[in-house]
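Section 5: illustrative case.
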C-alpha cells in the first residue's frame, strides 16, 4: 500500500499539472500528452502480455500504429472534426488500412497457426486505441469538454482507488473470484459511493453544473463508474488468461500503464455518449 501511495500521489500531481497546462495554453495539449503516451505504452504492455501467452505479435508495428492513430486523431480534432460514432475520419482510415495490410502480410507468410495472433492484434487496436480514443472525444465536446474530461479522469481513478481501499478495509464477500480474487462486493459498492461523491467536486467547479443538471449527472456518473470498474475486471481477465499479475512493473505499487488506464478505456465511450445525450436533451432548442 505504501508503494501504491508513493507512486499514485506524484502521478496525481503530474496529472493536475497537465490539466492546468491544458487550460492555460493552447487547446488540450496536456490531454494530448496523456492520450498519446498512455495508449502507446498501454499497447506495448498489451503486446507483452499476449506474447507471454504465446501469441506472435510484433511490438514495434503495433506501438507505432497506435502512436500514428493518436496523432491522426489529434490532427482531426485540431481541425474540429471529431471522430464521432461512425469514425469516418483520418484515424479511422489509418486503422482500416493497418488491418488490411496486416491480413495481407499474414497471407504472404502462410502460417495458419498465426491466425489467433492476428485476432489478438485486431482486439488490441480496438481495446486500446478505439475505446481510448473516446477520451479525446470527451475533451472535444462543445462547452463542457474541459470539465467533462477532468471529471472523467478524476472520477475514474478516484472510484478505482476508493474501491481498492474500501475493499481492503471492509471487504468480506468476493465479487468475481475467478477473474480477480482480491476484489470484493464491499469494495465495488464503496467505490461507487465515494466515486460519485468525489465526482461532484469537478461537476460543481466546471461548466458541467450549468449544462448537465444534477438529476441527469448522478445516474450518468453511476453508469460510468460501474463500467469503469468492469474495465478493471476486463484487464484482470486478460492478465489471468496469461498468468500475469500486472501488465508490467513500470509503476511500483500500481503495476503498468495498462493497469492504470484499464478503468478509463471501457468507460470512455460510455461517458462520451452519456454527455452527448445529456447535452442534446437538457439544452433548450
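Designed sequence:
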Amino acid at each position: 500500500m505504501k508503494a501504491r501511495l508513493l507512486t499514485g500521489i506524484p502521478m496525481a500531481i503530474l496529472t493536475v499539472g497537465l490539466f492546468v497546462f491544458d487550460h492555460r495554453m493552447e487547446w488540450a495539449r496536456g490531454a494530448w500528452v496523456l492520450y498519446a503516451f498512455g495508449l502507446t505504452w498501454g499497447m506495448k504492455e498489451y503486446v507483452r502480455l499476449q506474447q507471454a501467452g504465446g501469441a506472435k505479435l510484433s511490438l514495434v508495428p503495433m506501438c507505432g500504429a497506435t502512436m500514428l492513430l493518436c496523432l491522426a486523431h489529434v490532427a482531426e480534432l485540431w481541425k474540429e472534426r471529431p471522430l464521432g460514432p461512425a469514425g469516418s475520419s483520418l484515424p479511422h482510415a489509418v486503422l482500416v488500412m493497418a488491418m488490411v495490410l496486416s491480413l495481407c502480410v499474414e497471407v504472404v507468410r502462410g502460417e495458419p497457426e498465426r491466425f489467433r495472433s492476428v485476432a489478438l492484434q485486431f482486439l488490441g487496436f480496438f481495446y486500446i486505441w478505439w475505446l481510448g480514443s473516446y477520451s479525446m472525444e470527451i475533451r472535444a465536446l462543445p462547452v463542457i469538454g474541459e470539465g467533462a474530461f477532468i471529471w472523467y479522469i478524476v472520477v475514474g481513478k478516484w472510484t478505482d482507488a476508493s474501491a481498492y481501499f474500501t475493499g481492503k478495509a471492509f471487504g468480506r464477500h468476493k465479487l468475481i473470484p475467478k477473474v480477480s480474487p482480491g476484489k470484493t462486493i464491499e469494495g465495488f459498492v464503496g467505490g461507487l459511493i465515494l466515486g460519485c461523491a468525489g465526482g461532484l467536486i469537478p461537476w460543481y467547479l466546471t461548466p458541467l453544473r450549468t449544462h448537465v443538471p444534477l438529476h441527469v449527472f448522478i445516474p450518468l456518473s453511476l453508469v460510468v463508474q460501474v463500467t469503469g470498474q468492469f474495465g478493471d475486471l476486463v484487464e484482470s481477465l486478460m492478465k489471468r488468461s496469461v498468468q500475469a499479475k500486472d501488465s508490467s512493473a513500470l509503476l511500483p505499487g500500481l503495476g503498468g500503464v495498462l493497469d492504470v488506464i484499464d478503468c478509463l478505456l471501457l468507460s470512455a465511450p460510455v461517458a462520451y455518449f452519456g454527455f452527448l445525450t445529456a447535452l442534446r436533451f437538457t439544452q433548450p432548442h
